[in-house]
Specification:
The chain contains 1 helix and 8 strands. By secondary structure, it is mostly beta strands. The chain has one domain. It is globular, with a radius of gyration of 18 Å. The termini are far apart. It binds zinc ion. The site of zinc ion has 8 residues, from loops. Zinc ion (ZN) binds next to loops.
């Protein structure tokens, strides 16, 4: 029978993530509390998070349309495993809520944290609003999470 051992080691990895033109602009706009979707000139679908090409028409999209920071909760879950938060590098305390949110003015959903982690208070169709970081810096976590309005 083999014995298991654990070796605690922290790796120092320097890396940069290329988010692409559409997401780079999206994140930069967040520093002004501005959210814009990209609208397809073929089918009219408004993508948020923005992406350069329409998944339906395969057309390149360049038309920006404003999106509100309030929307509708389309799906949700409560996570009970304290995973490493990729945006902060720190473990995110569990439990926490995650949701797919269709912001007013968009046709697709944004995956984001929810302020609520009580399943009794979460339901599909709830209205939610972005809670912004006090000092914006042009990053995805300028929106800390979404709070449930109704
Ligand atoms: Zn399209």
């Amino acid at each position: 029978m083999s014995e298991r051992i654990a070796v605690k080691h922290t790796m120092d990895l320097a890396w940069r993530y290329a988010s692409g033109e559409a997401m780079e602009r999206f994140c930069a706009d967040l520093s002004d509390r501005r959210i814009e979707a990209l609208r397809c000139g073929g089918c009219g679908r408004r993508y948020l998070p923005p992406r350069p090409f329409c998944g339906n028409c395969r057309l390149r999209m360049t038309e920006r349309v404003p999106v509100r920071d309030v929307g509708t909760l389309v799906a949700w879950t409560v996570v009970h495993t304290p995973i490493l938060d990729g945006r902060t590098g720190e473990p995110r305390p569990a439990p926490y809520g995650m949701g797919l949110i269709r912001l007013d003015g968009a046709d697709t959903t944004l995956n984001h944290y929810l302020a609520e982690a009580d399943p009794a208070r979460l339901r599909v169709g709830s209205r939610v609003r972005a809670v912004w970081r006090p000092a914006l810096r042009g990053a995805m976590d300028d929106i800390l999470h979404f709070e449930v309005l109704s």
